[in-house]
Write a structure and sequence with these properties.
The chain is α+β, with helices and mostly antiparallel strands and 281 residues long. It has two domains: 7-66, no CATH class; 77-272, Thrombin, subunit H (Beta Barrel). It contains six helices and twelve strands. The protein has helices at residues 4-27, 30-48, 56-69, 76-84, 122-125, 268-272; strands spanning 88-96, 102-111, 118-121, 130-134, 140-149, 154-159, 182-187, 195-208, 217-223, 235-237, 243-250, 263-267. It has a six-stranded antiparallel β-barrel with strand order 1-2-3-6-5-4. A six-stranded antiparallel beta barrel has the order 7-8-9-12-11-10. A hairpin with a 6-residue loop joins strand 2 and strand 3. The radius of gyration is 38 Å and the shape is rod-shaped. The chain starts with a helix and ends in a 9-residue tail after the last helix.
Length: 281
């Protein structure tokens, strides 16, 4: 049997323990108390408002929405074209053939310095009475041959009336590339202004003798990007849009003047004296 004295002592003991807990709670730092309160609140929230499981359809819709809103990186070809397009020049020539008939041709050139000088293939402008150029901004002018290098089939033109605003191409280094690397050709095939084709480097150090000439071109870059009449004199580009060569010819196994997958370009290092350099004139 428990006496009244024992009941009083037990009551006092319980009161003392509760007092100690109150003291410990008071001694807790505000940060710890806040963490404890947050955990308790989260526990009650989860009990009162259980989260719903996402369905497969909802997940697919969320993924599709995220992919649709993402902006894809432009392809290398698009970046290269954007880089070179302001530097492309449309070349038209007039000449008299061996029979005395007036004829004309179309080719491509590329601006390569701050004087708006134009590099092209020599065979595009050789023996021409008239050379007319059209710049990317629409400026038209007659031009003359400033320099020519027959052993490389390269000519440099200067327009009588250059545009007030123009963008010289950035010259690259073909020595930094290897067989299989992506390349692009931009030019005016069959008079189609500023057209682009894509391919890869097929080989280096090729030799090519253009039809109707006694000149053998050496050290050429072979590529398989489509090139047709009108592309001659235009740039061969790397994936950055840097000029690594000047398109000079294509293999024609028959009489037809069309592309069969083998084109050649003079390395820009032969023209400019070094990757990223300036022409020696």
């Amino acid at each position: 049997m428990t006496t009244s004295g024992e009941r009083i002592s037990r009551f006092d003991l319980l009161r003392q323990r509760l007092g100690k807990w109150r003291e410990r709670i008071r001694e807790m730092s505000p940060f710890a108390f806040g963490v404890l309160a947050t955990l308790l609140a989260l526990m009650f929230y989860r009990v009162l408002f259980p989260s719903q499981q996402l369905t497969v359809r909802e997940v697919n819709e969320a993924v599709a929405s995220a992919m649709a809103s993402a902006t894809p990186r432009p392809a290398d070809a698009a970046l290269a074209y954007r880089m070179i397009q302001p530097s492309i020049v449309y070349i038209e020539t007039g000449f008299v053939d061996a029979e005395g008939n007036q004829n004309g041709g179309v080719g491509t050139g590329v601006i390569i310095n701050d004087s708006a000088d134009i590099v092209t293939s020599l065979h595009v402008v050789r023996n021409s009475r008239d050379i007319n150029v059209t710049f990317a901004d629409g400026t038209k002018s007659k031009a003359f041959i400033l320099m020519e290098t027959p052993e490389m089939d390269v000519a440099v033109l200067r327009a009588f009336n250059s545009p007030s605003l123009f963008v010289p191409a950035t010259l690259g280094n073909p020595g930094a590339l290897q067989v299989g690397d992506d390349v692009f050709v931009v030019g005016n095939p069959f008079g189609l202004y500023s057209s682009m084709s894509a391919g890869v480097i097929s080989a280096f150090g090729r030799t090519f003798r253009p039809q109707g000439t006694d000149v053998t071109l050496e050290g050429l870059i072979q590529f398989d990007a489509a090139a047709n009449p009108g592309n001659s004199g235009g740039p061969l580009l790397d994936r950055n849009g840097y000029v690594i060569g000047i398109v000079t010819g294509l293999v024609n196994p028959g009489e037809g003047n069309f592309f069969v997958g083998i084109g050649f370009a003079v390395p820009i290092t032969n023209v400019a004296g070094g990757g990223g350099g300036t022409p020696p004139y």
